[in-house]
């Protein structure tokens, strides 16, 4: 939720008072003024940011100059390379796998964010700087910082107007491209940012509020919080720097520099010194030296920071094994409703022309949408707050399939008929004796149609859909009721085996032998509990991919934005994956998925082994209302462990 101006003011007062208490509690780790051991002078440079790095095994310092653009100097202070023109106050760097560095710098003279590569080429006289691409910005940046996500370069650009933009920076045929992912809102006075890639957190300095931490991934909850209150840093602070070797965050505030253990934030400094005659706006560590630069300065001072290792318990976290990724082939148009609206899809396979198959998707604030496989919206039914939808083929009357959807506006089920030509017709609503109809999945047995329907605050009901011969008239008949321990939404039925799978959102995946249950001989069995690793709450959408020995139960693990594959009976974990951004097609990944559906039917060249459709809780590139992503099952199979992907 965005804060209004008065909310920021109130937050500032609270944080300043908290910071004052922390300042009283923390001691000055060294009361004597800190004096430099060396100084680098660059006459008339007017620099306000520096960044050290290595190229070809040698130490260098990059500076942003308001009169010379980017200036590269060696460890002795000799200029070895410069862009030669432009006005650069802010830039960001990121080391690449080949040892080169990406440099994103804003040139105020032309209003461009420019991307360059710094590299050391064998046989060259020294480092080289190559222009890669540029993008215009509507507002001058106050902070730039890179992030590494899934081996991609993400760039955060926070403007002086307080609006942040996240880009994916990537190669393209003509020049590197800046693909915008999302907007972020901070308000004015941001001074610096860095990204802790180990924890995937973006850290932003914003006087007088403090240093914010929020999740760096656009496909995760921001979880925005203050990790260093402004009152602990003084009136002006910024110049953030990450010491990745020691896993520390360094902050310049007034004439003081402080270091905080990243693993212990929020917390008190593990290092703090006052500089003798400088108030730096940019600091960085190079080996055992702290480099400090004042505002619009022409000198860099170096301070000896050789000291013992940081406090125990501050070690960097061990990185979890990466989750394989697949890319979407298409996405639907966004739903009409804002906020949490898109929810659950169902796939109708056109028996006459598979490429003309359809995706039905619920807008749980408005009704049911019908899409082509290219994502185009072709029909809308404003029938109320429909939550989940499922369908089954039918061999009677005028329809080729029937689709049922749970309705929370008028507690009941809406039924839709789909003709062989792909025209969807609404067949009306029938009420149910339930407080809040929620999850729904269909079931077909001996030519009869049923729906399992969950109550948001109670259990599940099994309802028979009684069709008349013309396929237009129908009624509901309650067959049975199943009690559950907590909230259930996602469910799917294996018709051939007569098995219901349902997801207790905080508990896991349950399996039920329907015939045995109706005969009072069996109850549900927990086959895949939420464990915080393979399966993370909430457990949401479910689907069955049925293809002989290569059949799987697919489950949305909403808590870590991934999808888990189990064996057809749900008892064996097979693998997991995420849906990531397809930069070539300009489609973002999926996250916080509610519903999903899958089919093994061949649906054209893009989906030769079937189609997976997933709801996307955070629609990015650019930001828009929620929608659904379409994924080729062939791409999923390529990510499965050996023995499951033949």
Q: In short, what is this structure?
A:
The protein has 646 residues and is mainly β.
Any descriptors?
four-stranded antiparallel sheet, disordered N terminus, Neuraminidase, mainly beta, 2 domains, 49% strand
What can you see in these coordinates?
- The protein is mainly β.
- It folds into 2 domains: 5-23 and 41-304, Neuraminidase (6 Propeller); 327-637, 6 Propeller (Neuraminidase).
- It is 5% helix and 49% strand.
- The chain contains 3 helices and 49 strands.
- Strands 25-46-45-44-43 form a 5-stranded mixed β-sheet, with no helix packed on it. A 4-stranded antiparallel β-sheet has the order 1-24-23-22, with no helix packed on it.
- A hairpin with a 2-residue loop joins strand 19 (248-253) and strand 20.
- The longest helix has 21 residues, at 5-25.
- Residues 1-28 and 308-314 have low confidence and may be disordered.
Could you tell me the CATH topology label of the largest domain. Neuraminidase
Topology, number of strands: 49
Distance between the terminal alpha carbons, to the nearest Å?
Answer: 46 Å
CATH class of the largest domain: Mainly Beta
CATH architecture of the largest domain: 6 Propeller
Helical content stands at under 10%
Structural class: mainly beta
Q: Report Rg.
A: 29 Å
Q: Strand portion, in percent?
A: over 45%
The major β-sheet equals: 5 strands, mixed
Low-confidence runs = 1-28, 308-314
Give me the side-by-side strand order of the main sheet.
25-46-45-44-43
Mean pLDDT: 90
């Amino acid at each position: 939720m965005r804060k209004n101006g008065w909310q920021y003011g109130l937050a500032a007062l609270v944080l300043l008072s908290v910071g004052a208490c922390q300042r009283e509690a923390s001691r000055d780790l060294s009361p004597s003024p800190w004096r430099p051991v060396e100084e680098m002078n660059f006459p008339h440079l007017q620099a306000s940011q520096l960044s050290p790095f290595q190229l070809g095994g040698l130490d260098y310092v990059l500076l942003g100059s308001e009169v010379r653009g980017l200036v590269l100097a060696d460890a002795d202070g000799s200029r070895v390379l410069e862009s030669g023109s432009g006005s650069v106050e802010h830039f960001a760097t990121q080391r690449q796998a080949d040892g080169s560095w990406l440099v994103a710098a804003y040139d105020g003279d032309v209003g461009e964010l420019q991307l360059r590569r710094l590299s050391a080429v064998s046989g060259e006289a020294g480092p080289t700087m190559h222009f890669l691409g540029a993008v215009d910005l509507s507002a001058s940046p106050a902070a730039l910082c890179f992030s590494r996500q899934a081996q991609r370069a993400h760039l955060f650009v926070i403007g002086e107007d307080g609006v942040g933009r996240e880009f994916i920076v990537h190669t393209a045929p003509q020049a590197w491209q800046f693909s915008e992912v999302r907007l972020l809102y901070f308000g004015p006075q941001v001074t610096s940012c860095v990204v802790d890639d180990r924890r995937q957190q973006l850290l932003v300095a914003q006087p007088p509020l403090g240093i914010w931490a929020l999740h760096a991934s656009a496909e995760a909850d921001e979880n925005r919080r203050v990790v260093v209150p402004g009152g602990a840093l003084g009136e002006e602070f910024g110049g953030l720097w990450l010491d990745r070797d020691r896993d520390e965050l360094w902050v310049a505030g007034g004439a003081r520099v402080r270091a905080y253990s990243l693993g212990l934030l929020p917390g008190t400094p593990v290092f703090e010194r006052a500089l003798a005659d400088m108030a730096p706006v940019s600091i960085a560590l190079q080996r055992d030296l702290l480099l400090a630069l004042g505002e619009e300065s022409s000198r860099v001072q170096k301070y000896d920071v050789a000291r013992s290792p940081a406090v125990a318990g501050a070690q960097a976290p061990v990185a979890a094994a990466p989750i394989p990724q697949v890319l979407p082939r298409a996405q639907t148009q966004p739903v009409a409703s804002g906020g949490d609206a898109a929810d659950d899809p169902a796939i109708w396979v056109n028996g006459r022309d598979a490429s003309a198959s359809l995706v039905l998707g619920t807008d749980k604030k408005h009704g049911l949408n019908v899409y082509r496989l290219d994502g185009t919206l072709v029909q809308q039914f404003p029938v109320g707050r429909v939550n989940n939808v499922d369908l089954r083929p039918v061999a009677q009357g005028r329809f080729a399939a029937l689709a049922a959807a749970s309705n929370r506006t008028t507690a009941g089920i809406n039924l839709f008929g789909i003709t062989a030509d792909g025209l969807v017709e609404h067949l009306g609503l029938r009420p149910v004796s339930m407080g809040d109809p929620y999850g729904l999945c269909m079931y077909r047995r001996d030519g009869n149609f049923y729906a399992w329907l969950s109550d948001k605050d109670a259990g599940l009901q099994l309802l028979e859909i009684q069709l008349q011969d013309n396929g237009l008239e129908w009624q509901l008949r309650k067959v049975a009721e199943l009690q559950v321990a907590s909230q259930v939404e996602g469910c799917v039925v294996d018709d051939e085996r007569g098995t219901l799978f349902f997801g207790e959102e905080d508990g896991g995946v349950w399996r039920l032998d329907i015939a045995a249950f109706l005969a009072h001989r069996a109850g549900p069995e927990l086959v895949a509990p939420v464990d915080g690793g393979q399966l993370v709450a909430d457990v949401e959408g479910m689907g069955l991919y049925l293809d002989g020995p290569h059949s799987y139960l697919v489950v949305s693990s909403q808590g870590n934005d991934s999808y888990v594959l189990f064996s057809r009976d749900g008892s064996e974990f097979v693998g997991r994956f995420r849906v990531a951004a397809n930069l070539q097609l300009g489609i973002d990944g999926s996250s916080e998925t509610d519903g999903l559906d899958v089919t093994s039917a061949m649906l054209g060249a893009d989906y030769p082994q079937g189609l997976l459709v997933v709801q996307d809780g955070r629609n990015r590139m650019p930001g828009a209302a929620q929608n659904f992503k379409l994924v080729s099952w062939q791409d999923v199979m390529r990510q499965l462990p050996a023995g499951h992907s033949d």
